[in-house]
Structure prediction request, 296 residues.
Amino acid sequence: MRISAKGRYGLAAMSYLAANYKNGMAITVLHISETLGISKIYLEQVFSLLKRAGLVISIKGSQGGYLLNREPNGISVYEVLTAIETTMTEKTDSTVAEKQPILDKALETVVFSQLDDAIKSSLEAISLEDILNNVEKLKEPDNLMYFI
Amino acid sequence: MRISAKGRYGLAAMSYLAANYKNGMAITVLHISETLGISKIYLEQVFSLLKRAGLVISIKGSQGGYLLNREPNGISVYEVLTAIETTMTEKTDSTVAEKQPILDKALETVVFSQLDDAIKSSLEAISLEDILNNVEKLKEPDNLMYFI
DNA sequence: TCAAATACCTATTGCTATAGTAGGTAAAAT
DNA sequence: ATTTTACCTACTATAGCAATAGGTATTTGA
Prediction:
């Protein structure tokens, strides 16, 4: 699975909004771009996609910015990535379909649709809260790996 | 998951070799390219990768061609695709790592490595034989979809 | 032994998607 | 009003993909 920079930016930005969700304040793209080290104007385009997907709410004007539209527990990584990655589960159409439609169909059934399902259920099971929990765990100074 | 045309070509070609495995004869790239409707010189490059990965054996010269190196049951779709797709599980390195290494690490742990595992185990569970079995099933004339 | 058939190799081209830039307009707050 | 913000469209540069081109090396069979 190749996940583009755009997808990673989106996940990082959404995680940041999630970390500040309880606070209730809108956060600007400029602030996020500086905090995470992402080009501001590029990140704007990412937020455009996130908003279109209904994952964030925007507030225009001074003191405006973005907010999660749902609580971190209710937003899955799958939703975030499908909102951003255009070619998430897309497949280039193969010329094999013309000469060997049965083989093509078999590949579709046995391989590609199963793979799509595996990816989907894997990413649907991960929420923004899961990411935050791991961030907190990594922050613990006594997080020494005694058991490794 | 985006799987390139190259990957699809490789799977189709390997399935074709699998279908003719018991026969024991080498099959030429030209023959496969014509049967499947794939550019011959492009398919040659695909076979170069498959050979490098040890999935096929080649025989040079007249009456030469390619053969599976193992029985269809022993070759997984994962092996075929990783032999071909360079960016299978690759991720573009994000600039987030520099300013927010903890968040970046959390995303790596919670999202990307889990996704890689899901993709890997999903594709490892599918063999070329599974594809052939589905092809046979689709060929049955009485394969009417009574239950749909 | 020679010609045909094949794998095998490297370089080149055109195209598409991605990453990022540029330069704005619209709306809201102070 | 001015500033701050989201929001929009167009543009550029680059990289990887799909495919082409033009060979060499090796084996078989006539």
